[in-house]
Amino acid sequence: MLHTVNKSSFERNSLQSCLNTIDDTSVILLIEDGVISAANNANSSMLSDLATQGRVYALQGDVDARGISSKVADNIKLVDYAGFVDLVVEHGTAVSWV
Amino acid sequence: MLHTVNKSSFERNSLQSCLNTIDDTSVILLIEDGVISAANNANSSMLSDLATQGRVYALQGDVDARGISSKVADNIKLVDYAGFVDLVVEHGTAVSWV
Amino acid sequence: MKISIQINEGPYQHQASDTAYLFAKAAIDAGHEIFRVFFYHDGVNNASRFTMPPQDDRNVVNQWAELNIKNASGEPELVVCIAAALRRGMLDESEANKNGVEGNNIHPAFRISGLGQLIEAGIQSDRLVVFGD
Amino acid sequence: MKISIQINEGPYQHQASDTAYLFAKAAIDAGHEIFRVFFYHDGVNNASRFTMPPQDDRNVVNQWAELNIKNASGEPELVVCIAAALRRGMLDESEANKNGVEGNNIHPAFRISGLGQLIEAGIQSDRLVVFGD
Amino acid sequence: MATKKFMYLNRKASYGTAYAIESLEVVLIAAAFDQDVSLAFIDDGVYQIVEGQNTDGIGMKNFSKTFHALGDYDINKLYVSAESLVERGLTADDLMSLVYEDEDDDWAEKPSVKIVSNAELTKIMSDQDVCLSF
Amino acid sequence: MATKKFMYLNRKASYGTAYAIESLEVVLIAAAFDQDVSLAFIDDGVYQIVEGQNTDGIGMKNFSKTFHALGDYDINKLYVSAESLVERGLTADDLMSLVYEDEDDDWAEKPSVKIVSNAELTKIMSDQDVCLSF
Do chains A and F touch (3 or more CB pairs under 8 A)? Predict the structure, then answer.
């Protein structure tokens, strides 16, 4: 499955909720304000394990818009909208943590 | 000052943000989904000190709508919309943690 | 007391407008004056005369209209931010004509104006209360 | 692949519609089919032909219209939920007539229909992606 | 028409926003399509099915009774996160008693609500074809 | 007209929602009213004034440069929560250099951004007459 998270983990509980129910093969794509969780910050540990496993992506355009491209945590992969489409195609059911 | 919080402390960080900057004389009014924080639950400790000081209110209509009227924590005072108006009148500047 | 209100969200999606309405009504009932209600962000969508809720539901737009909040000159003090309104498809007759659009959707109990009206409400009122998401 | 999209928020207030548009465009560019875009909740506000953004900003409504997403019969597959639309003041000509309202605001690149269209999109498409608040 | 597994993901309380009521409206329509339907109530979504909601004070429609209709439409898989309940100081007794009649068991009345752990919910979600989020 | 203390409370990042840009639009109009204006950036609101925003990839207007205009309108009290910055792994160096010319000090260029603790912010907020939240 592909899980998309579009809100900051500082503002909302959606990333935590996603992590509570994600299975061992699914991946996460951070979009919109969700990319705030891609930066090195006090919440980074939430995603570090999954990132090490290569299972965390972030939308490049949203990262750049928020001025945090130099701060993206290790092992988080940046994708463009074409990459977003590829993730949807490759990972089966899409779950949005809106 | 009167601080209004309209979101659940489980979903958002707005109640915590309010608590981070509230002064010693201000009061909090929980409205809309904010009343979820008026019930006895895992987040109750956030408000218990202020409630003991008589500085936490919750909008009765919103409490009733969410079916949690029997669960309201000790010392939280229930008000109706007329009570909401009185709080705005009595406490000076109104700050909304939307 | 003179009280003004800012509403940041549209009807039905968020409770903001419902709460603000019940607050305004209670304030009026208690003898206070609602100086102005300023609709900003998606709040502008509260002013649509096209709104057709189901029979068994409240009509948020009409509720506001029925409060009949006007100033001494008889102008409505339900004020819709023009900049926020245009980008969200809320037009009165004058803006529709200016933009060459056929039709308009602002309810006559509301008027379109600039953001200065919000600042002015803050200055002129004893209290300003914000309702939002 | 056949991909459908659900959009829960209106234009300009939330990024949802912008992201969904760029996603849909990228999917089409990659040779996929956008089977249907279903506008629900405040998402119905994306279909307003009254929308007049500032000159230097994108026009979210026209962007969708220009994607020209249609089915084999030539009907638009930008579908606006009728129940959500009516309570939020989004009307096409037929609904305006039914409700005795003068005027309408649905852009002709969109069509109003029932919630069944969302379920059907889920059944007929290989993927359904939701964009919201 | 193919049968797919549809999951309706409900994470928000009723009344504060329209997601809850408009999610339920979709579910009721979905019943006509003869698909496999599951509802998940997690986070503040669990408040949607708390017993004793009374909206007289807020001028909004109390639609909570409509959940009772789901059983009649063969929608009887309502999964509630146990962890979300505990965090919110709620128990099974606080939830509405939602039931359906099991046609495979002589129309015996059975509960539609199942309280499940996040681990169980993970498995249920992994099995879905379509997830509609509200 | 009376002079009041107006506080603009910014708690959300730009682009994900319109609150940031539409808050800035109010502030620019407010300048014409000759009131005492303060802006607070707390929580994800601090991202509004991070240096180096580039919106080419998302098709939205990059309005961050507009913050530089505030100084010209005598809006020069931009308070940023120190705790919010630290939590987000940001420092003063990550923020745009926003300045104004101090007419009481021979038009010397001075910083408009002040990083303050939540305790200091509490005092500043307690002093306000009107608080507009975005």
Answer: yes
Mutate to test the interface with B, among F86, F127, F131 (most CBs of B within 10 A): F131
Q: Is the pTM of this model over 0.95?
A: yes
pLDDT tens track for D23-60: 999 999 999 999 999 999 999 999 999 999 999 999 99
Q: Can you spell out the DSSP letters for chain E? A: ----EEEEEE-S-BTTBSHHHHHHHHHHHHGGGT-EEEEEE-GGGGGGGBTT---TTTTS---GGGGGGGGGGT---EEEEHHHHHHTT--GGGB---EEEEGGGTTEEEE-EEEE-HHHHHHHHHT-SEEEE-
- With CA atoms as reference, report the closest residue to E116 among E88, E86, E93: E86
Count of domains observed in chain D: 1
Q: Torsion-angle region of residue E11: left (phi > 0), alpha (psi -120 to 50) or beta?
A: alpha
Mean pLDDT (chain A, rounded) = 98
Enumerate the active-site residues of D.
81
**ipTM computed for the complex:** 0.97
| CATH assignment, F5-133 | 3.40.1260.10
Closest chain E residue to A5, measured at CA: E133
Please count the CA atoms within 13 angstroms of the CA of B42 that sit on its side-chain side. 13
Sheet holding E5-10, edge to edge: E113-116, E78-81, E36-41, E5-10, E130-133
Chains C and A touch (3+ CB pairs under 8 A): no
Enter the DSSP assignment of C48: B
Task: Provide block-wise average pLDDT over 10 residues at a time, chain A (98 residues).
Answer: 98 98 98 98 97 98 98 97 98 98
Q: What residue numbers bound the domain in which C68 lies?
A: 2-131
pLDDT category at E1 given cuts 50, 70, 90 is low
Q: Which two tokens stand for residue C16?
A: 């903001």
| Cα–Cα dist A12/B13, whole Å | 6
Measured distance CA(D9)–CA(D88) in Å, rounded: 12
Annotated domain spans of chain E: 5-133
Whether D122 sits inside 8 A of E130 (CB atoms) is yes
| Every domain of chain A and the residues it spans | 2-97
pLDDT tens across F93-130, in order? 999 999 999 999 999 999 999 999 999 999 999 999 99
Residue C100 exposed, middle or buried by CB count within 10 Å (0-12, 13-18, 19+): exposed
Min Cα–Cα distance to chain C from F132, Å: 7
Q: Side-chain half-sphere of B97: how many Cα atoms within 13 Å?
A: 32
Q: Are D5 and D122 in contact (CB under 8 A)?
A: no
Catalytic residue among C20, C24, C81, C82: C81
In angstroms, what separates the C-alpha of B81 from chain C's closest C-alpha?
6
**How high is the pLDDT of residue E31?**
87
Closest to C36 (Cα-Cα) out of C95, C115, C98, C105: C115
Nearest CA in chain A to E117: A21
Question: Are the C-beta atoms of residues F13 and A8 closer than 8 Å to each other?
Answer: yes
CATH class of the A2-97 domain in this structure = alpha beta
Coil vs helix vs strand at F46: helix
- F44 neighbors F15 (Cβ within 8 angstroms): no
pLDDT of residue F1: 58
Q: What gap in Å lies between CA E124 and CA A22, rounded to an integer? A: 11
Degrees, nearest 5: CA angle F15-F16-F20: 55
Cα distance between residue F16 and residue C39, in whole Å: 21
Furthest-apart CA pair in chain D: how many Å? 45
Bridge-based pairing of strands F108-111 and F99-102 is: antiparallel
In contact, A29 and A58? CB cutoff 8 Å: yes
Q: What is the CATH number of the domain that holds D105?
A: 3.40.1260.10
Tally of CB atoms within 10 A around D67: 17
F31 pLDDT tier (thresholds 50, 70, 90): confident
Please count the CA atoms within 13 angstroms of the CA of C116 that sit on its side-chain side. Answer: 6
Distance from E57 to chain B by nearest Cα, in Å?
4
